[in-house]
Amino acid sequence: MARHGSERGWYGKLIGAVLGVTVLAAGASVWTAQAGSVDSASPKPSPSATPGDAVKPVSPDIVHASDEGARGVNLTIDDGPDPEWTPQVLDVLRENGAKATFCMVGTQAKAHPDLVKKVVADGHRLCDHSVSHDTAMDKKSEAYQSQQILDTEGMITEASGGVRPMYYRAPGGAFTPYSRELAASRGMRPLGWNVDTKDFEQPGADAIVATVQRELPNGPTLLFHDAGGERSQTVEALRRTLPWLKEQGYSFGFPVR
Questions:
Q1: Given 4, 82, 225, 226, which residue is catalytic?
Q2: Single pTM value for the model
Q3: Active site annotation includes 225
Q4: Cα-based distances in Å from 82 to 91, 117, 119
Q5: Quick one: three-class SS letters along the chain?
Q6: In sequence order, what are the beta bridge partners of 125?
Q7: Which one of 30, 199, 202, 230 is CB 3.0 to 4.6 Å from 234, fit for a cystine?
Q8: In Å, what is the CA distance from 215 to each residue of 54, 89, 165?
Q9: What is the pLDDT of residue 4?
Q10: Phi, psi at residue 198, to the nearest 5°?
């Protein structure tokens, strides 16, 4: 997995807010204690993510495979939710009968709980993508990694109305053995990718589509973004890629758990 370093400056602007709304590892239990709570107005959850379910540990191995088998693809959408781009991505997915896994940054989920609920209501799955999208997380202390992962789990669970994230994707692929074990102990399978569309570099919709078509033999998990910059190219690329995938006989699944 490639490490993403460009187009990431916008997350630095969130750090001040993060310091005000998150706690370090010693306080992470405040968030995790909320993970089993159920909001009476919570939307219909996606499969295997029912509010109030007990946390069940999963494998700490990084997953790529699709639950739809050899002809399945996993659409993964990172860095949101974003009030401009996430609704457009949801529209394209709905038009094509496609499901996706949304890897959400904690501060974004906290800021836009209505969008988190819309993602769940449409039958998509949630993924913990850390509080501040620090691509150097693997160089930081275990206490820092714990804060980034557990605080985001709590933020997403609260924003969704009680639906916990089912996966953990390290920013830029900066996994560590500790972070994988911690996420897995909270029922979040570490999630990798096979096809990096490079859409965060804004290479043009043609280039994004071509990357998917060229690199799909590498594996079933595709990486797109719905935040972190202007994402009209991503929306257009999805609008063209999803029908093509169906024409090729692929179905849309979720990463295996």
A1: 225
A2: 0.82
A3: yes
A4: 14, 13, 12
A5: CCCCCCCCHHHHHHHHHHHHHCCCHHHHHHHHCCCCCCCCCCCCCCCCCCCCCCCCCCCCCCECCECCHHHEEEEEEECCCCCCHHHHHHHHHHHCCCCEEEEECHHHHHHCHHHHHHHHHCCCEEEECCCCCCCCHHHCCHHHHHHHHHHHHHHHHHHHCCCCCCEECCHHHCCCHHHHHHHHHCCCEEECCCEECCHHHCCCHHHHHHHHHHHHHHCCEEEEECCCCCCHHHHHHHHHHHHHHHHCCCEECCECC
A6: 101
A7: 199
A8: 38, 22, 28
A9: 54
A10: 60, 25
CA 184/CA 152 separation, integer angstroms: 14
| Residue carrying structure tokens 């820092």 | 144
Chain segment 82-135, per-residue pLDDT in tens: 999 999 999 999 999 999 999 999 999 999 999 999 999 999 999 999 999 999
